[in-house]
Amino acid sequence: MSLLTSDDSRKTSKILRKAIHFSTFLSILSFIAGLCVLAYLVYDPDKTYFSDNGLLPGLASREYTSEVGKADEYLSELKNITSNMKDNDDLPVHYLREKFVEELGLEFYEHRFRLNYPFGQRPSFDGKNVYAILRAPRASSTEALVISTPYRTNSSIHGSNLPSVAIMLALARFFTTTHYWAKDLIFLIGDKELVGIQSWLNAYHGLTETDWLEHGRVPMTSGAIQAALNLEIHSFNPKSIDVKIEGMNGQLPNLDLFNVAIELCNRESLPATFHGTSFTSSANEWKNFISNAKTLASMMTTQATTLPTGAHGLFQRFAIQSISLEAFGVSASAKNQPTTTSVNIARSIEGIIRSLNNLQQRFYRSFWFYLLPSNRRYFSIGFYMIAFGLICLPLALRSLKVYFEAKESKESKKGKSLWTSFESAFLSHLFGIITLSIPLIMARIDTRNFTFLNQLQIHDQLFSILSAIALISLVPMIIGLRKSENDIRIQAMVSFLNAALLFGSISLINISMAFGLTALYVPLIFLTEELNPRKASPNFIYIVRSLLQRTILLMIHPLSLHLFCLIGLSIFVDSEFHSSENSFNDPMFFMLKHLRRAFESQRKTILFFIEDWFLYDNWSYPLMCLGLFPVWLQLWYNSLCKIRE
After folding, report:
1. Domain at 53-375: CATH architecture
2. Which residues contact 163 (CB under 8 A, 6 or more apart)?
3. d(Cα 96, Cα 108) in Å, to the nearest integer?
4. Average pLDDT for residues 400-425, to the nearest whole number?
């Protein structure tokens, strides 16, 4: 800090002054080096291994054989019951009570909750979770493991989840015949998708109720939950099983838990995949690199969205290590391919639970911050932060260069300081706070009283207001656009440091989001700075440079980035894009179709992120409002400022 606050820049070392002099070259070199380091990590990642020997995955002998056929019997009964129910989305509580209590002799409880939708007419939805507890014969209910599943029938957009309930019942039946459990086992079936499981977790841990989710209290608790295994089994005859780890806000479980699941599934002849791909080791190194790169890109894209890939992501907020196992039936075109049975699935789950039962304490040895280029390879925070630091370093170098240029200028003698950038920084963050407050205000007032809003759907209301704020924020209301060259330098330096601070902070929570934003913003920030004609001039070159600079800035506006991501997603999931015949017969129509689809989705996805913020404490919307939006506004205001003649 003394380097930045010293008034005598002549005392700066020669090495530092040379580094500042060549900062542009060093910045380019650093950015390219960061990308090369990441590419090398993908090319040569480390092998996964078990850090905690207490898991003892090799000694967890699987014994599930006597219950063969029981899972299929339960599944048949569940299908018959749900087909005869008036509302087949309701939990078959009586059937589950009969099985857990009368047949298995477990403790069985119901947990009621209410969801109060915060917008529009504010409808309420009542839900009911059910859970059973198998008390550990070797302990006093101080620790517990959870096997969970969200209840879904064929009417769900995610497909039927009844096989998960059936295999849970079959495993519970088998577990009651064994006596080696050192932890309680909780079998949780959640209602209303993730809302039910979130409400149960809130109630179990005694959290304060919110206006949106009245979670009440659970009738009975067990000990501290050590780990959770969420089941999303859609068929008993899958080709493979996918292990899902990404949680809310990009959180990840302890790597040992993931390794246990991969190892035990493979030992039961149940191919375990990660993002749909399994580990392949080929003599062709380029083929291995491409496979690793695709898997890593899929993981980082998923993690950057901050959305969980399953109900397991809700447990991680409570420091509960959790994963999801997802299995789909084979398609009609792949009927001849080898598949597995419910026995393979049940034995894999049994092995995972028994390994977790061996834990003497919470997970603490292995990594919580890592990236996976395959299910058998990884690299940890100690390696990927090198790559991130290198691509973020240009912002710090540029800030130092601008700082010393400002200190050595003649105007610095007049007592100017960092306070000259206060106006732009204050206005930028003020608009960020206003944007963050809009959903909170709309949740407190009845928008039906406003005629011009009442005619719009909720997502259109929010999008209209947010778009209006975004347009208003483009006008620098209290900022003087004519400044001295020194003031402009200081203002630019503060915006660079603000961006570096934001990206660095995000990297400690969600490296995928931080890496994506940094890799995009850093080169474009440098490009817009070089294009910025500081001195106003009516000539053609000035107009072109200004127009190009502001066009680039508008393209990296948070709303624009969101739209571009949706366009890319729309194109990627379009079967026409993957077809070799019809993809680009009419490119204009093709792009307009996806632009329209993305624009329609944008309004809804903004609402979805706000709902997730209210219900699940998702940070995406607050982070964009209080972090990325103010940073972008500071860059925008910098582009408008010109040197005072």
Report:
1. 3-Layer(aba) Sandwich (3.40)
2. 71, 75, 233, 234, 235, 236, 342
3. 9
4. 71
